[in-house]
Amino acid sequence: MTWFLQRYSYFPSYNIPYFKKITQISGFVEQGKKLGNWFVWGKSPRARIFERDHHTVTDLDSLTKLMR
Fold this sequence. Notes:
Blueprint: H1 2-8, H2 20-25, H3 28-35, H4 45-53, H5 60-67
């Protein structure tokens, strides 16, 4: 995770497990096979929005706007 923090300065969860073992145990691998990127950390629609727009966050108000 250090590399991610150094690159992006934040660590989002997207309500999807980041660690491979947890992803497997919790069934996200199987769901990903059925439903595609909706269950893949870093590729879900929420992840793509955050990757695109995270640089616009400068204060609590702009964070709230991004999260809505």
